[in-house]
């Protein structure tokens, strides 16, 4: 049964950047949203100019842009004017090293200031920026650099020595390596970035790139085969800026914290570009998740807008509400979640603990930016992804026939599809035209996600198309079952898969982790199973439950159901390079 909506007050609606969703649908389109940016002369558009330079041009150079905290507690701050100088210097360095427009710059850095400077500086120079997660092992790093034809790499000395140097001969396009930190040995093709920048003047004019010029390369793993390189262009900044303003409700005086690593698309689109184009102060923490540290950061830095992942939210729930109640979080006015669906219990929990709910939203690497969201002015339906952004045409479609059929009936499941044309839509899978073409059909982009839309226009996630379970004629979405399981007080996290059964075709098997204080035994297993049957009915509830200490997940936090299924059935595991803890 759906939980009651969390209503927004008239004051909350009035204060939002988009105070009336229905009115915005009539008046806001991509043409209007493009006007929010400055653009360069003669139809040129450059993400870096919109993110940094234009704020200096509009006399906001003294506003703090980046507030960085190291693992050891060190703090560095950059105003927009200072960030312009440092990114100009990096862009000039690329040119002085002989790298021109279109150069492909890969980053293997953690969340350090040099990563953010390099990202903006590369785009200023007309280059292509490709962030890699710094915890990747040698093989996923080499594979992505080879596919992307990396020409410049920015890395710590340790990561370069362990993950790239031994295989550098297999990367013929790699010309230069820029090392950040102590311990490196500069040699031919390897330079100390700090020393090189110290010798480089901050004298650079941002390249007048065209809207369709390649700007970003993001890798995403498929269930099988090699990683896919999703190509994004400078026009994507229109969507980054608009969604930051509308879906995350960013105002110029906000202190914004996106906890995602820039190695993932969220950490680039909303950890770099969207906050900077909207002129906010963005907080960056080099350290990994720690509940106490996070709450201290929210309080001390007076964060007003917070964007994080369901995995982190569940870990905060597990840590207990007392940690949050011990802090003054009164400045926090908007919280959003992305990465995987946010279950209704987590939305209710946040509303109770913080006095406001997490606002779930939906998008993919391929969409480049938020497509569906719970907006600041809109009532939140716990468990729902929200409604499409103005300018985004979404539909639920039946793909079983020769041609797609748009499903109009409320809450009938089908594949979530988008009408192409939004600015941040990926333009290609790098060098894989056929793979790209398969993502489109009958004038729609097919997301691979199964969803439903209710009578009020809210979208609800059901599951990935390849995760659906078919049992005794029932089509079961994993997320529905997992959401019911985590409502049990003992269950911290859950993942469900279908396993073969002679009579039913497939039955539901659940893997669960427990909150501290609960012991895994048969009595608890039966109790959880009974809870699920009471919530879902015997046809949908799990027939088997297995306790686990941990669940396999990607480094961005998504639980890998396909990996659980492959291991359960002895099937090939496919691409596991993004698996948390992989070498």
UniProtKB/TrEMBL annotation:
Domain (AMP-dependent synthetase/ligase) ranges: 56-430
Domain AMP-binding enzyme C-terminal: from-to ranges: 480-558
InterPro entries xref list: AMP-bd_C, AMP-bd_C_sf, AMP-binding_CS, AMP-dep_synth/lig_dom, ANL_N_sf
BP GO terms, sorted: acetyl-CoA biosynthetic process
GO molecular function, one term: ATP binding
TM spans (from-to): none
Single GO cellular component term: cytosol
Top-level EC class: ligase
UniProt EC number: 6.2.1.1
Keywords: Acetylation, ATP-binding, Ligase, Nucleotide-binding
Pfam families (alphabetical): AMP-binding, AMP-binding_C
PANTHER family with a match to the protein in the record: ACETYL-COENZYME A SYNTHETASE (PTHR24095), ACETYL-COENZYME A SYNTHETASE 1 (PTHR24095:SF14)
The name this protein goes by in its record: acetate--CoA ligase
């Amino acid at each position: 049964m759906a939980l009651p909506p969390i209503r927004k007050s008239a004051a909350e609606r009035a204060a939002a950047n988009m105070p009336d969703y229905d009115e915005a649908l009539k008046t806001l389109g991509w043409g209007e949203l493009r006007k929010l940016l400055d653009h360069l002369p003669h139809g040129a558009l450059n993400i870096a100019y919109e993110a940094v330079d234009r704020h200096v041009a509009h006399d906001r150079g003294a506003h703090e842009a980046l507030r960085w905290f190291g693992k050891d507690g060190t703090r560095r701050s950059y105003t927009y004017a200072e960030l312009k100088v440092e990114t100009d210097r990096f862009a000039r360095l690329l040119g002085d090293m002989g790298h021109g427009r279109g150069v492909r710059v890969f980053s293997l850095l953690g969340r350090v200031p040099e990563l953010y400077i390099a990202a903006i500086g590369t785009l200023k120079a007309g280059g292509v920026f490709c962030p890699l997660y710094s915890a990747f092992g040698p093989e996923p790093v080499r594979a992505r650099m080879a596919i992307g034809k990396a020409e410049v790499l920015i890395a710590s000395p340790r990561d370069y020595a362990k993950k790239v140097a031994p295989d550098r001969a297999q990367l013929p396009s790699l010309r230069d390596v820029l090392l950040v930190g102590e311990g490196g040995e500069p040699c031919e093709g390897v330079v100390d970035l700090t020393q090189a920048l110290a010798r480089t003047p901050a004298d650079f004019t941002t390249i007048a790139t065209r809207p369709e010029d390649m700007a970003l390369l993001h890798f995403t793993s498929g269930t099988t085969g090699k990683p896919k390189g999703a190509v994004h262009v400078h026009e994507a900044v229109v969507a980054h800026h608009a969604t930051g303003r509308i879906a995350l409700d960013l105002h110029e005086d906000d202190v914004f914290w996106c906890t995602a690593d820039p190695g993932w698309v969220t950490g680039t689109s909303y950890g770099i570009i969207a906050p900077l184009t909207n002129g906010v102060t963005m907080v960056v923490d080099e350290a990994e998740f720690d509940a106490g540290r996070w709450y201290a950061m929210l309080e001390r830095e007076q964060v007003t807008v917070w964007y994080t992942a369901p995995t982190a939210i569940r870990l905060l729930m597990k840590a207990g509400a007392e940690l949050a109640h011990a802090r003054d979080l009164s400045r926090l006015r908007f919280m959003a979640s992305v990465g995987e669906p946010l279950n209704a219990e987590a939305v209710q929990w946040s509303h109770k603990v913080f006095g406001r709910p997490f606002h779930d939203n939906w998008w993919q690497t391929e969409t480049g930016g938020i497509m569906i969201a719970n907006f600041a002015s809109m009532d939140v339906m716990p468990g729902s992804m929200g409604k499409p952004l103005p300018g985004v045409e979404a539909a639920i479609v039946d793909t079983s026939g020769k041609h797609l059929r748009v499903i109009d009936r409320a809450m009938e499941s089908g594949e979530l599809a988008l009408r192409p044309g939004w600015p941040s839509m990926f333009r290609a899978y790098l060098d894989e035209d056929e793979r790209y073409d398969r993502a489109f059909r009958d004038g729609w982009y097919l997301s691979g996600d199964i969803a439903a839309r209710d009578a009020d226009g809210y979208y609800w996630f059901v599951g990935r198309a390849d995760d659906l379970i078919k049992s005794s004629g029932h089509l079961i979405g994993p997320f529905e079952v997992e959401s019911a399981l985590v409502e049990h007080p003992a269950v911290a996290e859950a993942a469900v898969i279908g396993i073969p059964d002679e009579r039913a075709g497939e039955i539901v098997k659940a893997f669960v982790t427990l909150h501290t204080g609960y012991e895994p035994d048969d009595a608890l297993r039966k109790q959880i199973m009974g809870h699920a049957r009471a919530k879902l009915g015997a046809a949908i509830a799990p027939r088997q439950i297995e306790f686990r200490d941990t669940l396999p997940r990607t480094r961005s936090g998504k639980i890998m159901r396909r990996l659980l299924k492959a291991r359960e059935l002895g099937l090939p595991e496919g691409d596991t390079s993004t698996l948390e803890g992989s070498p």
